[in-house]
Amino acid sequence: xxxxxxxxxxxxxxxxxxxxxxxxxxxxxxxxxxxxxxxxxxxxxxxxxxxxxxxxxxxxxxxxxxxxxxxxxxxxxxxxxxxxxxxxxxxxxxxxxxxxxxxxxxxxxxxxxxxxxxxxxxxxxxxxxxxxxxxxxxxxxxxxxxxxxxxxxxxxxxxxxxxxxxxxxxxxxxxxxxxxxxxxxxxxxxxxxxxxxxxxxxxxxxxxxxxxxxxxxxxxxxxxxxxxxxxxxxxxxxxxxxxxxxxxxxxxxxxxxxxxxxxxxxxxxxxxxxxxxxxxxxxxxxxxxxxxxxxxxxxxxxxxxxxxxxxxxxxxxxxxxxxxxxxxxxx
Length: 331
Fold this sequence. Notes:
Layout: E1 12-16, H1 20-32, E2 36-40, H2 43-52, E3 57-61, H3 69-79, E4 85-90, H4 94-102, E5 107-111, H5 115-152, H6 156-168, E6 175-178, H7 185-194, E7 203-207, H8 216-221, E8 222-223, E9 235-236, H9 238-241, E10 246-250, H10 257-269, E11 271-272, E12 281-282, E13 286-291, H11 295-300, H12 306-312, E14 315-318
Parallel strand pairs: 1-2, 1-3, 3-4, 4-5, 6-13, 6-14, 7-10, 10-13
Antiparallel strand pairs: 8-9, 11-12
């Protein structure tokens, strides 16, 4: 389906054309339907704007100062793939329009432009592109689902686990994965990452039980030169290394109490402060934690902070033990 009126506010159209009157008129037609419009007067300017503000669709004139539209379209496709490009041509440039289609452009329109034809072509291109993205997402989902089945079996409990992974992966929820040692908690965490918006970013795994207590804060949050004896260089922590990706904190129950307090602050502020540094560094990290302990017991005994527990457990997944998965291939 084409985008609804209420949905078009987020859709950006880049018009690359040296004809100011055409840009003004076409821009007004698109704005009247709720689209956001960006203008560029020639190819090089269009490429620069593409690097700063990625649009959802490009209207590209064939005849411009410098290189023609087909050459510019090739550069745009190399720079950012997947954006539909509609070539704008004159009536005498139909052969050029056909070349544009062969070069990968979605469609073409001819000047003078009929407003209804313009809107129909734009909406059809956006609809097709959205469908292509959905097909890609579903293929990725199917591949990852099959991988989970291969690694963890096809019992009813695993089917339910995979359903929960599919639900939470596209969200921004912090996830707590609970399960016995060796049950496959990191596999589940990686599946969530691979199906999320952070999938192109790094996946950084930290075993909180394997790092000495006196080093855990420097490992997670980093430090600056001179912060302590032996700190000869600045070092980013695991949070910074996972920026724009996912940080997986395995065996979170082993995290020392002081580090728990700092972790809670990072989750709340979305920023980290290296040891010895006064500056806060903004981060965008999807946080997934895992435990083989019953954290509720640790909360009652004062070993684990209740406020951190509830921040980590915005969404929880329990991994069934191996003894309940007789068909599993994972060991």
